[in-house]
From TrEMBL, chains A, B:
Region forming the signal peptide: none
Domain of life: Bacteria
Entry's transmembrane regions: none
Name this protein carries in UniProt: Phosphoserine phosphatase
Organism expressing this protein natively: Microbacterium invictum
Membership in a protein family: Belongs to the HAD-like hydrolase superfamily. SerB family.
Amino acid sequence: MTDLLPSWRDTATRAAILDFVDAVTDSDGPHFVPAGDRVAVFDNDGTLWTEKPFVTQLAYLLEQWKAQVAADPSLADTQPYRAAATGDLAWLGTAVDKHYAGDDADLGLLIKAVAGATAGTSVEDYQAAVSAFYRDARHLTLQTSYAHTVYQPMVELIRLLDSHDFRTYIVSGGERDFMRPMAEEYYGIPVQRVIGTALGLEYDADANVVRYSPSLDFFDDGGEKPVRIWARTGKRPILAAGNSNGDVPMLRYAQGSPASLALLVHHDDDAGRDVAYDKGAEDALAAADTHRFTVISVRDDWETVFPAEG
Amino acid sequence: MTDLLPSWRDTATRAAILDFVDAVTDSDGPHFVPAGDRVAVFDNDGTLWTEKPFVTQLAYLLEQWKAQVAADPSLADTQPYRAAATGDLAWLGTAVDKHYAGDDADLGLLIKAVAGATAGTSVEDYQAAVSAFYRDARHLTLQTSYAHTVYQPMVELIRLLDSHDFRTYIVSGGERDFMRPMAEEYYGIPVQRVIGTALGLEYDADANVVRYSPSLDFFDDGGEKPVRIWARTGKRPILAAGNSNGDVPMLRYAQGSPASLALLVHHDDDAGRDVAYDKGAEDALAAADTHRFTVISVRDDWETVFPAEG
């Protein structure tokens, strides 16, 4: 089994992962879990790929909003279109900060613009547009294709679980259909196992297509994650991995299983291989102590961070 | 492949099913569909098991409502609790008839009572209660266990599709978590592939469980079926099977695939093996002509209707 995690250093974290997989797959052992119940859930942004300088979906949306402003300049009177058109992204960070401080007015504008970028589009057309983005776009700071912005050790962990009959799911605050093409291509997680924030959908009987509505269905973060895990999988997971405050309920939910592993990726690398930050993870790091999450130190546990350029 | 549909008669319908499976699995043929895209969706009530004299979930709910009235007699002042307590079920039929006539007041009471039967219950406790019902209850008119109220030819069709690398899903107006235990046990369809009407859910962080809220999330019928198919599977199905008006959008949605099969079960048996009825299927039967659905005649296409008692 050792060969399956080549990008991991030989640390206690790696041993804890391998021990857990051994324990739940040992049919003679006390912690055995039948294959059908081996559900593993992964946050995406900051857990499976980098979320710095900002989440990839925002890079995509900025291009969409810029194009919308080009078509209708009056949009630039309001946010976040103005930010997209002028490249002054400070407003975006403020909107999120305000949200965590309890003021959702700017977040409301943001959500409206997120839904507005796809409203009326068929799901097939959106998948094609998103796939083209993944094919052509380059990451702002890493200057690589997005395929090279994934955390290689985590992809190896997904492969390890696959090879032991786990069903791996993405459970992310990111928008579900934006993640589907990359989850399949970059992680080998099929589209039906991607759970995320959901835009409203409507069936257009005349055209016989499903289209996005101008509304949000739900934001998949915090306590919504366990809810959506149950709705989709009908199981309580036995393994959960996250990196931020919004992942704590999902990690705790997994810990309610008789045998479980709760993994928290800590962005503590000081060698410039990965951006180091605790912002947005303060509660999660505190909860890691209280609830004995297994903390993955980027600095100490990962020999390699990103995949080698092909 | 012939042996896989032993309860079917040697008819054009059976040939159409076998030809379709041949065509989409022939990697050298013009209609080949890769395994990952072989998604098949099945309505449940009236398609995979009998929905007469009424849907099984109602049999379960009547017991729940009766117990609620026993605990709080004042509930019997309102419907549907009075109907449950007195055994006068006419009101229930009227509520549904009124709904189809555009008056949803009684349906609102019904939905409130459906959600009220589980509000505050953890998903695990509900699964245990539902599983006990399936183990112990007997069907009102067939006088068998519910395991023997499934349509044996349709179960064989699911097995045929399984053996050709389809992913089969339930897509039903029935409540999702009520169906999960029986879908797995009776059809071999795992819980993560059950799509249905969804009760609201909430994460209770203190108890670390997911519980039902007193609200309905969505009613999975009509145009909502294509929407929920996309949300869950990320695919347009290539095979859909239903039996009533609410299945037409799902059947049409499947027909938007380059190769597809839309199956409509017609309850036309006049030999007393199955209840014969067209009520609630009028539009679907008309659409079958217009859109060339493949109609499954219970009378002509099925040699056996229900599984033999074990």
